[in-house]
Specification:
Length: 261
């Protein structure tokens, strides 16, 4: 049995560290079996309200978080389920409420010690509300999303792997005008695994050196590996595209195959 606590710190956004420093610590209770498999229970207590620096974010109401993680020996397979009632942020310019957060994943690290796992992941948010304190001429002041779902899945196929990801929104309201459902899904197939691992390694080195990865660094690394990325004739497909409003619906589909021979 291992009991640990950790404090939340934002590396890329230090301005949030004053608020995060007032958050309760993350509590992790782990039980490991003789065969190396185990289970971790994760929890962060709720906090009624916290006053920020008086800058962009003045008050945060954190409603807590709980989670469960199961893992096999050597962490070859990791399954997780996390839930949170949500969080509310109030700043000098407006208010943000995020409620009903749920996340789950089932990831496997392929044999051979590769650093890129494959599997499924999903995140659901029941409602998001954004509201400004003062109406602004020509600007959007009130937005609400209901039932947002993000999902992704990847699979290894010999020297290549496939990936599909997307999101779905049941309802979207902008300044009182209803839209939805909104849906987008994109699949990428026949990606050369060795090229992808080299790209990830380059991004990790960039992050370790500078604390974050920029668009220029990603573009440079991708360009250098482009011949390897396309050598197995990858495919890109927008398999779902839908945007619905009271005036009608926009739908679409696209498919691109790159000949790497």
């Amino acid at each position: 049995v291992i009991e640990t606590t950790a404090e939340l710190v934002s590396v890329n956004s230090p301005e949030f560290n004053e608020i995060l420093s007032k958050m309760p610590p993350v509590n992790v209770y782990t039980v490991i079996s003789i065969d190396g498999s185990g289970n971790s229970l994760i929890s962060i207590p709720g906090v009624a309200s916290m006053t920020g620096s008086g800058q962009e974010i003045e008050k945060v109401t954190w409603k807590g978080l709980s989670g469960n993680v199961d893992f096999t020996s050597g962490f070859r397979n990791i399954k997780s389920d996390i839930t949170s009632p949500g969080v509310e942020l109030e700043g000098k310019n407006g208010f943000v409420s995020i409620s009903g957060l749920k996340g789950s994943s089932d990831m496997t690290y392929p044999d051979g010690g590769d650093e890129t796992p494959v599997g499924k992941a999903k995140a659901v948010i029941e409602e998001v509300t954004l509201r400004t304190k003062e109406e602004r001429v020509g600007e959007i002041d009130n937005v609400m999303f209901k039932n947002i779902e993000f999902r992704g899945e990847s699979a290894e196929n010999g020297p290549t792997f496939d990936s599909v990801g997307g999101f779905h929104v049941d309802e979207l309201t902008i300044e009182g005008n209803p839209y939805g459902p909104v849906e987008f899904e994109m699949a990428v197939r026949n990606i050369d695994k060795s090229a992808w691992l080299k790209f990830n390694e380059a991004m990790q080195e960039e992050s370790a050196q500078y604390g974050q990865t920029g668009t220029d660094a990603a573009s440079e690394a991708f360009s250098a590996l482009l011949p390897e990325f396309i050598k197995r004739s990858p495919e890109i497909e927008i398999s779902r595209l839908r945007f619905t409003s009271v005036d009608g619906a926009l739908t679409g589909h696209a498919f691109i195959k790159i000949d790497g021979s």
